[in-house]
Design brief:
heterodimer; A: alpha/beta; TIM Barrel; eight-stranded parallel barrel; four-stranded antiparallel beta sheet; 8 helices; 16 strands; B: mainly beta; Elongation Factor Tu (Ef-tu), domain 3; Rossmann fold; 2 domains; six-stranded antiparallel β-barrel; 4 helices; globular
Chain lengths: 303, 259
């Protein structure tokens, strides 16, 4: 049994496997299938200060080795989260992070202030990379000045771990990562979905009601690996790798590229207990390669 | 029964016509109660073009042999692959998912209306309603006689009426053209329907006009099946609801259908 525990800045994880926001609900939906407490942490559904209905149906298109979604941050708002959902999450003995999003900097601040009051929420993941909202979201995450504005503003009001989730829909992710680090991010998670599109040739119409949406699944893993590797050379804060992780081997690849932990996203839809298999598989890999600890392979790519 | 993911063994694969299969899947564990209207989400293995699971209504349940059956209409690569699964192999199955049709406390007169492969969600419903002494009538519509399968099984649980678009069996036209949808409809306490959305909307409109309770089973595309991806939403008077967890069965008056 290798030591799977890892510190991501001041976030202490019992193992490096977390779940990606929007693919794991509030954890409660998985209680039938698995023991959520076995995870290093969960990132719950994207939360905004005001309730959001999200986009119209259809919001999903299956693609080659992946899928597009345009849910559009459907959630009942930060107040509802604090009063109705949070009390149900206090049963869990794992890290719970809330993915915080907004249309304006003021909305990000207001939402983070509410989450800051919730004792058992160990951190936030600042979502500056949602491609499916008309205002805010990814718009904040695609230029250095806007990243600096939103990250530093939330840093002033949020006092626990702040992970910043980066968008891949940019030309130089390393530069944007540096802006987030400079503005007070404790760690970075990457990547969010890639902006894409699906068309029904028979009807000659776009499949999604929003025309474009976010691509996820194994199709995006090579891009995610490349971006984690680039960002690991650009910043010194820890990284959490996300993008098409379906099994332990995929996860190991992200550690080698420089991630200290990973988030499993779309794979949860296909196999709701896949994260447990990934934790076991990481342990097997470390044992097979005679490593004592997960820290032995982080950034351990042979060049 | 709580939601689970199991490898179920295909113990029979009955080809009903050119593109319909009835697969009987056996669980290694004792099945607990599965309610009529619930569905299963099947993984398609080794298909380069299919990524997500495919949802199917649970057609029938056999608690003695611990089997469920699913009715598969071949539409695309996923359903074609599943339809051709050989007996003896396994299908990774997430089930039972979703809510179910309302079973009234006292026996009532109930009309089930199925269109196309939508009949799949009505078989176990017909069985349970009939077992609980409800007076069950079943109206099934299809394109052609060859698409009307499993009528014999339905007739064990109630009176069966049929319509076909080409007139090869029963009344020519759509289910809404059947005589029973006219003045006779007032005799029913409830209508339960599953089929193409235009058909269900037409049925819901008639039910609304006659003030008959109407439950519909929706079939939106989904990525997960257990309420986390939020992709399969239906617009209801209470906002967006997940078809996979708040449904698939909705009272038609809850839906924001412009009828």
């Amino acid at each position: 049994m290798a030591d799977l525990s890892i510190k991501v800045h001041n976030l202490e994880l019992k193992n490096p496997v977390m779940t990606a926001s929007g693919t794991f609900g509030y954890g409660l939906e998985f209680d039938d299938f698995m023991d959520v407490n076995l995870l290093g942490g969960i990132v719950v559904k994207g939360t905004t200060i005001h309730p959001r209905q999200g986009n119209a149906y259809p919001r999903m298109a299956e693609t080659a080795l992946g899928m597009l979604n345009s849910v559009g941050l459907q959630n009942k708002g930060a107040h509802y989260f604090a009063t109705d959902i949070y009390p149900k999450l206090t049963k869990y003995k794992t890290n719970i992070l809330v993915n915080v999003s907004g249309s304006t900097i003021e909305e990000y601040i207001a939402c983070a202030e509410i989450i800051n009051e919730l004792d058992l929420i160990t951190g936030i993941e600042l979502n500056i990379s949602c491609p499916n909202v008309k205002e805010g979201g990814m718009a904040f995450g695609t230029s250095c000045p806007s990243i600096e504005a939103v990250v530093s503003a939330v840093r002033k009001v949020y006092h626990k771990t702040m992970m910043v989730k980066l968008s891949p829909n940019v030309t130089n992710i390393g530069e944007l990562a540096k802006s987030a680090e400079f503005s007070g991010a404790d760690s970075l998670s990457l990547i969010n979905t890639l902006l894409g599109m699906a068309i029904d040739a028979e009807t000659r119409k776009p499949i999604l009601s929003t025309i474009t949406g976010g691509l996820s699944g194994p199709a995006i893993k090579p891009i995610a690996l490349r971006m984690v590797w680039e960002v690991s050379k650009a910043v010194s804060i820890p990284l959490v790798g996300i993008g098409g992780i379906m099994n332990a081997t995929d996860a190991i690849e992200f550690f080698l590229a420089g991630a200290s932990a990973i988030q499993v996203g779309t794979a949860n839809y296909l196999d709701p207990s896949v994260t447990i298999k990934i934790i076991d598989g990481i342990d097997s890999y470390l044992n097979r390669h005679k490593f004592n600890s997960i820290t032995d392979i982080i950034g351990g790519l042979h060049m | 029964m709580r939601k689970t993911v199991l490898n179920l063994k295909v113990i029979s694969n009955l080809q009903l016509n050119d593109d319909h299969h009835l697969l009987e899947l056996q669980s290694p564990d004792q099945l607990e109660t599965i309610n009529p209207g619930q569905f299963a989400n099947l993984l398609v293995d080794h298909s380069p073009s299919v990524f997500l699971r495919r949802p199917f209504s649970i057609y029938s349940v056999d608690y003695l042999n611990n089997t469920i059956s699913v009715f598969i209409k071949e539409i695309g690569d996923g359903t074609r692959a599943l339809g051709k699964t050989p007996v003896g192999s396994f299908i990774n199955t997430m089930f039972p998912l979703g809510n179910s049709f309302t079973i009234p406390d006292e026996p009532q007169r109930i009309l089930l209306i199925g269109g196309g492969s939508g009949v799949a969600s009505l078989m176990s419903l017909a069985q349970i309603l009939s077992k609980k002494s409800n007076e069950v009538s079943i109206l099934i519509g299809a394109r052609s006689a060859v698409d009307l399968v499993e009528l014999g099984h339905f007739s064990k649980y109630g009176t069966v009426y049929t319509t076909t678009e080409d007139g090869t069996l029963g009344t020519k036209g759509y289910v809404t053209n059947h005589l029973i949808m006219g003045d006779q409809l007032a005799q029913f306490d409830r209508i339960y329907t599953c089929g193409p959305e235009p058909m269900m909307k037409a049925v819901a409109l008639i039910a609304k006009e006659k003030a008959i309770i109407c439950e519909v089973s929706l079939e939106n595309s989904m990525a997960c099946g257990f309420g986390v991806c939020l992709c399969c939403i239906a617009e209801t008077i209470d906002g967006h609801k997940c078809v996979c967890t708040d449904g698939p069965v909705f009272n038609s008056t809850q839906l924001k259908w412009q009828i």
